[in-house]
Design goal:
Two copies of one chain form a homodimer. Chain A has about 375 residues and is α/β, with parallel strands linked by helices. Chain A folds into two domains: about 110 residues, Aspartate Aminotransferase, domain 1; about 240 residues, Aspartate Aminotransferase, domain 2 (3-Layer(aba) Sandwich), CATH 3.40.640.10. A seven-stranded mixed sheet of chain A has the order 2-10-9-8-5-3-4, sandwiched between helices. Chain A has a four-stranded antiparallel sheet with strand order 11-12-15-14, covered by helices on one side. The longest helix of chain A is centred in the C-terminal third of the chain and has 21 residues. The interface between A and B is large, with 58 and 57 residues.
Chain lengths: ~375, ~375
Amino acid sequence: MKAKYTLFTPGPTHVPEDIMQELSKPLVYHREAAFTEILNESIKGLKKVFRTKGDVFIFTSSGTGAMEAAVANLLSFGDHAIVAVCGKFGERWRELVLRFGGYADMLSIPFGRSVPPEELERKIKANDAARFVFTTLTETSTGALNDIKSFGKLCRANNRILVVDAIAGLGADELHTDDWQVDVVCGASQKALYCPPGLSFMSFNDRAWECSEKSKAPRYYWDVRQFRKWMQDKGQTPWTPAIPLFYALNRALGQVLEAGMDETWARHRRLAEYLRKRVADAGLELFTEHPSNALTVIKMPEGVDGSAIVQTVKERDKMLLANGQAEMFRKVVRIGHMGALTKTDIGKAFDAFLHAFKEQPGPRGQP
Amino acid sequence: MKAKYTLFTPGPTHVPEDIMQELSKPLVYHREAAFTEILNESIKGLKKVFRTKGDVFIFTSSGTGAMEAAVANLLSFGDHAIVAVCGKFGERWRELVLRFGGYADMLSIPFGRSVPPEELERKIKANDAARFVFTTLTETSTGALNDIKSFGKLCRANNRILVVDAIAGLGADELHTDDWQVDVVCGASQKALYCPPGLSFMSFNDRAWECSEKSKAPRYYWDVRQFRKWMQDKGQTPWTPAIPLFYALNRALGQVLEAGMDETWARHRRLAEYLRKRVADAGLELFTEHPSNALTVIKMPEGVDGSAIVQTVKERDKMLLANGQAEMFRKVVRIGHMGALTKTDIGKAFDAFLHAFKEQPGPRGQP
């Protein structure tokens, strides 16, 4: 069946046909050796993607589920956390911390920028009570990339637990969970790992386990202690998993790991650099100071409605770019290049964007 | 691709090929009108399945996720709840209530029986503090069916909120959410609605909403207020949904609703009655006093190891029956007949069971 459009959205992303076909394979029973094999393969592959020797858990949920899992497994009522935010998905950490009864000490910066490590350091030094730092690798709303390596050093030196939402970045932007001293990383299936949505991931190291033993937040579905016990005792998940999505995940991981993470990151970087050059050549500006390699967020000149461009490209070219979110709805256009897209795909998407951009009325245009 | 075996497990269940094929259809973007249409169709269909005019929410999770959603959206720390339990999945309500800081007043009965309404009445009368009653429609571990209609009358008359885990029963055993005065019902995709696992459902009526406004349990991923707001404002889910599973769900719901719920329940009843007759004709006994129409749980005579039969049938006949759970591992064999299975399928499964049963050593056998 033909797609309505090619996805250049920053999740779900374009999923190659062979991976989509995995979904329709006959179901195995999840309380059976056949599923244990599949689960083991997924976890083994994800550990390579995360670059961790710690635990990795797979939840049947969206990426937000893994974020809730991180908070619910670490925090107790009344705990303090620093939340370093550079966009909408960073804000989600704040909401989660507050919902679980924590205090969120916010380090907020103008959207489009990345969190300066020295600002995080200042925040950490000023807040002895905060045991946790929540932040984002790749902020999908703005395209900003954070310097997680520096954050990791800072957090370890100051004995804080670092929790990173890498949902959009995982696979696209370099991330060395263990080497960079990140304690908990959240990811999801439908981004740079080019799977359909429905699975989320969380890495969890020994420092996180230590916190988790003390955590008093209510948790059951997300409880890593349950996941560990079931994994150790039976090689199974405690709850019924979304079996077809595991088939797709394993096939995608096989392809990603055949190339290797270094090459996968390099491939995303080449795509991103190519698109950023096209943007500059067209006389346009990025919205983002330190851009991620997962997506490119293009600033619309004053008076140009980005959402009209997205609409035109969708109808005329059958490609789906993404609008800005909330207050940035018309002000930016986002083009995802995470996952299985090629330079040719990205080139076509930008051609289509530029065609529609030049047709826009208003004081813009002729670059 | 050929299946390893036909599933007679009580979830995941056998999914017809045309529904499995839906999973591989090209992804739409969930922030797009195309997905809103799909979501509306799912919810409209589920309301007919649940027989409710109240709200129905769809989560990307297993059925346990919907159970956690019920607890997290209703309870506050220190709340009291009656938990009427007749098996392993009833016990799950207790764990959830405790994890969320509630007090669980347990009505536990011997496994294999159903909760007598008069016992529930006695419990309710004895516990003024408990605003909630948590129970199970179809207890998958024992095959027991509860008299939810009577529970509904009792709860309404005594101003309690009735929350029913109908995960295994939904679609197989009669359930009239509104007419039976059930306030919250949990369901899942991979049972009698013959979809793959990965989606869960929760109905939520006005009385539940009233409780929910007062509830102080931490919640974010499961928060029905978020789901309602996103649905009203945009016709979308707040978090990225498992899009392929919605395709499958809609196709399955189309088939279920074409037959209609009355006929769907009747079809399950006919399958169950046929299998129960076969069991009796073989001189065997049910484990269950008031059996559900979703699955049949056969008691093994003293000395017969049910798990060996399940193993033989799997290897020889390529059909997967289910063992008992935990302490019932060898003592029962469970045969699911929920979903898309036919009388012919069930007949073959029982033939295979009987063949293996008769080969078992020990003081059993010749019926």
